[in-house]
Structure formats: C-alpha cells, structure tokens
C-alpha cells in the first residue's frame, strides 16, 4: 500500500527540505526501522488518536501530539503536515 505525505525534514546540520512524497508502507517502515502499526501515529486520517511519544529500539521517536506529528531520528526530524 502507498502513502502520500507532505513533510518537512530538518537535518542535524540545520538543512530544511519540504517535500511531498509517496512511500510504500513497507519500504518506509524498513528504512526507519518501524513497525507498520507505528504509521497510524503519523497518519492524520486516524482521528481517534491520543497524544503519544513512542520510543523505538532503533533510536527513533514517533511523536503524535494531535497537530504535531513527527519522526525523530539521530540524523533528522521529519514533521508531517
């Protein structure tokens, strides 16, 4: 299944990049060492969510604070619109 997200990426050096990308769910999970269930916290279409900060073993934080959805890694922060 494909995901289409608009996101802003900020690298550790401060480089900001905005993009609209289409991802394969499995490829995105594999690239960021996530479980498919973690994608629900990043997807704005799931409206019945509660705020969550989910630490993952791969040094990744999945953040959902209603209007702020982010994937935080040691290399970058991805903010999803």
What do you see in this structure?
The chain is mainly β and 81 residues long. It is built from 2 helices and 6 strands; from the N terminus they run ββααββββ. It has helices spanning 25-32, 39-42; strands at 2-11, 16-24, 52-56, 60-64, 69-72, 76-80. Strands 2-1-6-5-4-3 form a 6-stranded antiparallel β-sheet. Belongs to the CorA metal ion transporter (MIT) (TC 1.A.35) family. Keywords: Ion transport, Magnesium, Membrane, Transit peptide, Transmembrane, Transmembrane helix, Transport. It is a multi-pass membrane protein.
Q: What's the CATH C level?
A: Mainly Beta
Number of domains: 1
Order of helices and strands: EEHHEEEE
Q: Can you give the mean pLDDT?
A: 89
Strand segment tally: 6
What does the overall shape look like?
globular
Order of strands, main sheet, comes to 2-1-6-5-4-3
By DSSP (H or I, 4+ residues per run), the number of helices equals: 2
Biggest sheet character: 6 strands, antiparallel
CATH architecture: Beta Barrel
Assign the structural class, choosing from mainly alpha, mainly beta, alpha/beta, alpha+beta, or little secondary structure.
Answer: mainly beta
Q: How far is it from the N-terminal to the C-terminal residue, by CA?
A: 20 Å
* Rg, nearest Å: 12 Å
Q: Output the CATH topology.
A: Lipocalin
**Helical coverage, percent range:** 10-25%
What are the segments in which pLDDT stays under 50 over at least 5 consecutive residues?
none
GO biological process, one term: mitochondrial magnesium ion transmembrane transport
GO molecular function, one term: magnesium ion transmembrane transporter activity
Keywords: Ion transport, Magnesium, Membrane, Transit peptide, Transmembrane, Transmembrane helix, Transport
Family: Belongs to the CorA metal ion transporter (MIT) (TC 1.A.35) family.
């Amino acid at each position: 299944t494909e995901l289409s997200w608009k996101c802003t990426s900020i690298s550790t050096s401060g480089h900001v990049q905005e993009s609209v990308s289409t991802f394969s769910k499995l490829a995105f999970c594999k690239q960021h060492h996530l479980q498919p269930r973690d994608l629900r916290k990043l997807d704005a279409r799931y409206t019945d969510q509660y705020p969550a900060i989910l630490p993952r073993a791969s040094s990744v934080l999945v953040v959902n604070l209603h209007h702020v959805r982010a994937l935080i890694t040691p290399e970058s922060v991805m903010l999803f619109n």
